[in-house]
Design brief:
single chain, 460 residues, mainly alpha, Hydantoin permease, globular, binds phenylalanine, SNS_sf, Na/ntran_symport, transport
Length: 460
């Protein structure tokens, strides 16, 4: 069970390239808009603390499991599970379905972000701050939103076509540091706005009266999506990793990146939106796309001459976050097909491009043309459905199967051995308890809660 003997397989140029790629995959739209809104909703600091604890216990344990599984098998998800018997391949197949479902709609939102970055320069900040007409007009305008989606996809496909070292590593090396610098600058600037300090306090100071089971479930779901768990990505990325790199240290660093950027995103967005809306509850109410595409442009427009720069830089940094995640999603799809069908990288990429473009067009039609399809009830779209199905249903199922598979069928010893090839494993016992007992229970809780919430049986 080793990756040697398969010379055609890609590999990272070093441990840092791997950490950066995993962080680039983790840091995405989820950090940029979902995290701030959840933090606003669940009492700021209370949510931050809960999230921090979950990432560094549950989150890094699963990251470690997936990365070690990838490295020990030298395969992407399907092959990795199949090595233990044909009957387990279905876990890998389920995991692999996730990136195929997410990539098309992720690129649609990526197209919106690209459009907004450009619109700050072309249309100016006032045009975007019209209370929502600009946004609605744009997403329901089939041709225009298709074109921006295609532009976003084109960048992603070009980077992936350049390969792991020549494309993905280089793109991450430019975009990740740039993203962090821009985030720090925007956060500093928005915090200097009048009234922002009060918003920052709301964001930072824990309000323990808001601690609730819903908060924990919300934080758990966010953690899954944000760390790109349970969809085969980390298995693929682990399979490109050499045996010298310490896995425990790497996954801790990936967690730090993800939490750090989420924290910064909250610092950019919550105080700014707080100023505009007057209270934390109002910010929490502006959940989902409206916070980023309607509320924030309203805030930026009030910044006078700085509005163009702040708006443009903000959407550029969100664009970088979206691009690096979309690149990692696409790479995972490519490696799944490459390994599964035994095709060349080129042929696999061509297939992925075809599937993603066609599926993207279909999902985009959900805003106009196919908007009569309301899969999750009145007012919902195809995009909402795919988002719900992948994040709230498939990912928890895959995570549960993975934990049971490693914890009870293969036995944790296999992963422990792989981890110890490159570093001591101080948390071995705690990790084993986590994978065998704690994680499966938590995952079942998320699954039940999310599905119940979707059908109105539970409110989150
Ligand atoms: N983790 C990314 C985010 O926070 C989303 C993502 C999910 C990226 C799955 C890759 C794979 O937005």
């Amino acid at each position: 069970m080793s990756s040697t003997g398969t010379p055609a397989r890609s590999s990272w140029s070093g441990k840092w390239a791997f950490i950066l790629a995993a962080a680039a995959s983790a840091v995405g739209l989820g950090n940029m808009w979902r995290f701030p809104y959840l933090a606003a909703k669940y009492g700021g600091g209370t949510f931050l603390l809960t999230y921090l604890v979950l990432v560094f216990t549950f989150g890094v344990s699963l990251l470690l499991l997936e990365t070690a599984l990838g490295r020990t098998t030298g395969q992407s998800a399907i092959g990795a599970f199949k090595q233990f018997g044909k009957k387990y391949a279905f876990i890998g197949i389920l995991a692999s379905a996730v990136p195929f479902i997410i990539t098309p709609y992720y690129c649609i939102i990526g197209g919106w972000v690209t459009k907004y970055a450009a619109a700050y320069l072309i249309n100016g900040p006032e045009a975007l701050a019209d209370g929502g007409d600009f946004f609605t007009g744009f997403i329901t305008s089939n041709t225009e939103s298709f074109l921006w989606m295609l532009l976003f996809m084109a960048i992603v496909f070009i980077v992936v076509s350049l390969g792991v070292k020549g494309g993905i590593e280089k793109a991450n090396l430019i975009m990740m540091p740039a993203l962090i610098v821009m985030a720090v600058a925007i956060a500093a600037y928005t915090l200097m706005q009048p009234g922002a300090a009060e918003g920052a306090l709301y964001y930072l100071v824990p309000d323990f009266s808001k601690f609730s089971p819903e908060l924990v479930i919300g934080a758990l779901g966010q953690m899954f999506y944000s760390l790109s768990l349970a969809m085969g990505i980390m298995i693929t990325y682990g399979s490109y990793l050499d045996r010298k790199s310490s896995l425990t240290q790497s996954v801790t660093r990936i967690g730090c990146f993800d939490v750090g950027v989420s924290f910064l995103a909250g610092l950019m967005i919550v105080p700014a939106a707080f100023v505009a809306m007057g209270s934390g509850d109002a910010v929490a109410g502006a959940a989902g796309p409206s916070l980023m595409f309607i509320t924030l442009p309203g805030v930026f427009a009030g910044m006078g001459d700085a509005a163009v720069v702040v708006g443009f830089v903000f959407f550029l940094l969100v664009l970088f976050a979206a691009l690096t995640s979309a690149i990692s999603l696409t790479e995972t799809c490519v490696s799944i097909i490459q390994d599964g069908a035994g095709w060349s990288r080129k042929k696999a990429l061509g297939t992925v491009i075809g599937v993603v473009v066609v599926a993207g067009i279909f999902v985009n039609l959900g805003y106009n043309g196919l908007s009569f399809i309301e899969p999750l009830g009145a007012g919902t779209t195809l995009l909402d459905f795919f988002d719900f199905f992948s994040n709230s249903v498939l990912m928890p199922i895959v995570a549960l199967l993975t934990c049971v598979f490693i914890g009870w069928i293969v036995k944790p010893g296999l992963i422990v051995k792989e981890v110890k090839l490159s570093s001591p494993f101080k948390a071995e016992k705690a990790w084993t308890v986590m994978i065998k007992f704690v994680a499966p229970v938590l995952v079942v809780v998320i699954l039940v809660a999310y599905v119940a919430a979707q059908f109105g049986l539970f409110s989150m």
